[in-house]
Design goal:
The protein is mostly helical. The chain has 4 helices and no strands. The protein binds zinc ion.
């Protein structure tokens, strides 16, 4: 069962890597903000069944749709929301990797 390892490795490891590489002394704060990107998995609560291990979440859940992704890209522009947006996009990349591995 390597797939959950890849999943959580990307969800938690990728933001950490980005924080360490690009945010210097501020890495911990940046990492915390990026982890907030996990919040969009709340839309799984709307799904029925709520959890299904082999379901691709991209374009299945409302906060994982292309429309939502377009909004996340837009959030990259204002400085205030940029780190959060990076977290959201990393989240989408992690979920998309899951889909590709299925
Ligand atoms: Zn997700």
């Amino acid at each position: 069962m390597i797939q959950p390892l890849i999943h959580y490795g990307l969800h938690f490891g990728l933001p950490l890597l980005v924080a360490l590489l690009f945010f210097g002394k501020q890495w911990l704060k940046a990492y915390g903000i990026m982890l907030l990107g996990l919040i969009i998995d709340l839309d799984h609560l709307l799904a029925n069944p709520m959890f299904q291990p082999n379901r691709c979440s991209i374009n299945f859940h409302p906060l994982h749709s292309y429309y939502a992704i377009a909004i996340y890209l837009g959030l990259l522009i204002p400085k205030k929301t940029r780190i959060f947006a990076i977290g959201l996009i990393i989240h989408i990349i992690a979920d998309a990797t899951d889909c590709a591995l299925m």
